[in-house]
Here is the input.
Amino acid sequence: MRMNRTLGVLAASAALSLAAPAFAATNFFTNFDSINFGSGPGFTTRESYEGWTAGRNGLEVQYNNVAGAAFSGANLVELDTSANSSMSRMIDPGTYVLRYWYSNRPGVPASSNGISVLLNESPIFTTPGGNGGASTNWVLQTVNFAVTAPTTLTFSAIGTSDSVGGYLDSISLSAVPEPASWVMMILGFGMLGVALRRQRQAKLRVTYA
Ligand SMILES: [Ca+2]
Ligand SMILES: [Ca+2]
Here is the structure.
């Protein structure tokens, strides 16, 4: 009985260390495929989509190869609607890895294809663009950053504002545990392991007494 209570406390502390601030941070995955827009090619301009809020020029979702194939599923986002456009969402404090797939729009020069990542409207990363070829050319981009207060994460078109621009697909934000949280977590699980072993030994003693 006493062991069970100890075990319970240790399990709770291990769970608490899992729920430490790093784990309360924002995690999301978005691939723009939540809506099936039908079988034919086309595009739609929306004010919000999959947790993203569009800037003043809306958010263009392309589907079914209207101007190049998506990285995942049928849909992708192009960040240049009728003019350079953007999409934003709020994230909580944390240490993060941002991963996203980028492609030039086919046939569009590098000078019109750029996309920047911004935190509270300050650029932290610019996707290396390039001249668009005959088809989409998806390249994984990885950006590491940390924020200590609620922050607006934005993807924004840069370069020539001309209704054609860079593509985005399959974006994920993953919180990275702080070193202190790792130590807490390892300690927590270590203690849990010791308690489990003790409990097992206690049971053995009871069985064979
Ligand atoms: Ca997709
Ligand atoms: Ca453009």
About this structure: The CA atoms of residues 75 and 182 lie 37 Å apart.
